[in-house]
């Protein structure tokens, strides 16, 4: 890195965003002053200036885009091959999880090695290779790391896994047996039930609503269906290979190009993604889970795309509301009221319109008050300007947190991969501090009114029907479901 950030510099940026627990409130006082914000370092008012190291970039003959970020501080190399069009977004509607299982099973055997031989080879080299794809992702990835002396061997193995998987039936059968048990177990988890329902509510029938395999889809999977998906979607036309570590572009190409020479360009166009249908009116979705000792509470709505001009404003808004332990949700609901161990919010912008959610688990007896106060914090974001000091602290915390990630070359390279995938300007990350500090209080309030609109803010609650069902109508129209997702009322 051309420039280092010391911990003291980061502390100066964070300034008074340090939490100190109070000794307790006087008896009889409602609520507590459990968090005291104290300044522990001089606060710089200047915006941090950054210039990320740029990777060398090249387009290979088969359409693959290559990025190499040199970093000679350690004799290590990491790589990520991101294949657009190979994610779960492109699963058939009746087979959610096809892309995810295809990715998982690619490491279970190739034309030259079985799963045990692959594992032993990696262990011998102290290397790693993984293949993954999310159930709603538009991409699949082949990732790995090794010492620089073993990069050629590690990447050769990764290429074998990429190009020559055999999807052995015995390994697939073992995977199905393990997964069936997991599918049963996950339905006992309130957090899973809540996230599953929220995805359906926010996305409808859109591919982004998929959060898990189903037993029916699992039964349909065969070695032949996995091989067919692999053949159709694992093509280099719209892929990017990003490498970070102790080697140059010339050295990387010397290894990569011969190994990938047989990965032919398909000529297939990049399939466009679409936004989910408009979300419905605000509703309370109650999942009745008898004998629950706590309640899982989620708020959610549709958000923005990653290329939205509102991205930086929404990021500041969400950070203030609940992105971490200095957010209002955590401070109020945990530290002041003691309802929960943690309350957080987050937004997931995608190529398509993503979501915004907030969640917490609370004791059953405080369900009503916790949900009331959670909604009150969202209302406060819409109705009031954020006080200047809080606003400045949180903007600085975004910049400082971002700066801390830049010591990791793989993380820096991943930023450039994101820039490439979303078509962002080449200096996009260099200007993040300036863009963040340019966000205004009025813009944050306007974003809250727009994206956290009460008329479209959905509530999901998972808990004991005998104890909390009567509390929920106060918060809107209630629909009741069982733990299998079937509506019962």
CATH class call of the largest domain: Alpha Beta
Instruction: Count the beta strands.
Output: 14
Percent of sequence in beta strands:
15-25%
Number of domains: 2
**CATH topology (fold) name of the largest domain:** Cytochrome Bc1 Complex, Chain A, domain 1
Termini gap: 59 Å
The main β sheet shows up as:
6 strands, mixed
Please list the strands of the largest sheet in the order they lie side by side: 3-4-8-5-7-6
Report the helical percentage.
Answer: 25-40%
By DSSP (H or I, 4+ residues per run), the number of helices equals 17
- What class would the helix/strand composition place it in? alpha+beta
How would you characterize the overall build of this protein?
It is a single chain. Helix 11 packs antiparallel against helix 12 (367-383) and helix 12 (367-383) crosses helix 16. The protein is built from 17 helices and 14 strands. The strands form 3 sheets. It has a 6-stranded mixed beta sheet with strand order 3-4-8-5-7-6, with helices on both faces. It has a 6-stranded mixed beta sheet with strand order 11-12-10-13-9-14, with helices on both faces. Strand 6 (128-133) and strand 7 (139-147) form a beta hairpin. The protein has 489 residues and is an alpha+beta fold. The chain folds into 2 domains: 56-259, Metalloenzyme, LuxS/M16 peptidase-like (Cytochrome Bc1 Complex, Chain A, domain 1); 284-481, Metalloenzyme, LuxS/M16 peptidase-like (Cytochrome Bc1 Complex, Chain A, domain 1, 2-Layer Sandwich). It is globular.
In a nutshell, what does this entry contain?
With 489 residues, the chain is of the alpha+beta class. It has two domains: 56-259, Cytochrome Bc1 Complex, Chain A, domain 1 (2-Layer Sandwich), CATH 3.30.830.10; 284-481, Cytochrome Bc1 Complex, Chain A, domain 1 (2-Layer Sandwich), CATH 3.30.830.10. It has helices at 7-14, 98-105, 115-125, 151-163, 169-186, 190-203, 215-220, 223-233, 249-259, 311-322, 328-336, 367-383, 388-405, 409-422, 432-438, 441-451, 465-468, and strands spanning 19-21, 35-37, 56-59, 65-70, 76-84, 128-133, 139-147, 239-245, 284-288, 294-302, 340-348, 355-363, 458-463, 478-481.
């Amino acid at each position: 890195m051309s420039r280092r950030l010391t911990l003291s510099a980061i502390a100066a940026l964070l300034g008074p965003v340090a939490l100190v627990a109070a000794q307790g409130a006087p008896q009889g006082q409602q609520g507590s002053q459990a968090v005291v914000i104290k300044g522990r370092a001089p606060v710089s008012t200047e915006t941090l200036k950054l210039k990320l190291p740029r990777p060398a970039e090249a387009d290979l003959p088969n359409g693959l885009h290559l990025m190499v970020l040199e970093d000679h501080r350690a004799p290590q190399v990491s790589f990520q091959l991101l294949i657009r069009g190979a994610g779960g977004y492109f699963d058939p509607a009746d087979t959610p999880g096809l892309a995810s299982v295809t990715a998982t099973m690619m490491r279970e055997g190739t034309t030259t090695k079985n799963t045990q031989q692959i594992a032993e080879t990696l262990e011998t080299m102290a290397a790693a290779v993984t293949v993954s794809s999310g159930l709603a992702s538009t991409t699949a990835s082949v990732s790995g790391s090794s010492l620089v002396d073993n990069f050629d061997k590690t990447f050769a193995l990764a290429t074998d896994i990429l190009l020559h998987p055999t999807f052995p039936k015995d390994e697939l059968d073992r995977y199905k047996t393990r997964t069936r048990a997991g599918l049963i177990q996950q339905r006992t988890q309130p957090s899973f039930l809540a996230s599953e329902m929220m995805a359906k509510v926010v996305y409808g029938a859109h591919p982004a609503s998929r959060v898990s395999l189903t037993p029916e889809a699992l039964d349909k999977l065969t070695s032949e269906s996995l091989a067919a998906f692999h053949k159709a979607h694992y093509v280099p036309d719209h892929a990017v290979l990003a490498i970070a570590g102790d080697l140059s572009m010339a050295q990387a190409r010397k290894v990569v190009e011969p190994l990938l020479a047989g990965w032919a360009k398909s000529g297939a166009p990049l399939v466009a993604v679409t936004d989910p249908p408009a979300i419905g009116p605000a509703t309370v979705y109650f999942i009745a889970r008898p004998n629950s000792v706590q309640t899982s509470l989620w708020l959610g709505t549709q958000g923005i795309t990653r290329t939205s001009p509102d991205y930086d404003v929404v990021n500041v808004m969400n950070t203030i509301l609940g992105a971490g332990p200095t957010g209002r949700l955590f401070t109020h609901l945990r530290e002041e009221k003691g309802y929960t161990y943690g309350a957080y919010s987050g937004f997931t912008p995608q190529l398509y319109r993503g979501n915004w959610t907030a969640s917490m688990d609370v004791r059953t007896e405080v369900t009503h008050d916790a949900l009331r106060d959670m909604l009150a914090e969202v209302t406060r974001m819409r109705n009031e300007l954020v006080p200047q000091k809080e606003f400045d602290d949180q903007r600085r915390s975004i910049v400082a947190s971002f700066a801390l990630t830049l010591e990791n070359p793989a993380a820096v390279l991943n930023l450039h991969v994101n820039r490439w995938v979303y078509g962002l300007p080449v200096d996009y990350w260099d200007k993040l501090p300036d863009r963040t500090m340019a966000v205004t209080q009025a813009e944050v309030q306007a974003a809250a009114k727009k994206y956290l609109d009460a008329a479209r803010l959905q509530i999901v609650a998972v808990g004991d029907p005998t104890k909390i069902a009567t509390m929920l109508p106060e918060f809107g129209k209630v629909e009741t479901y069982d733990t299998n997702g079937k509506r019962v009322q």
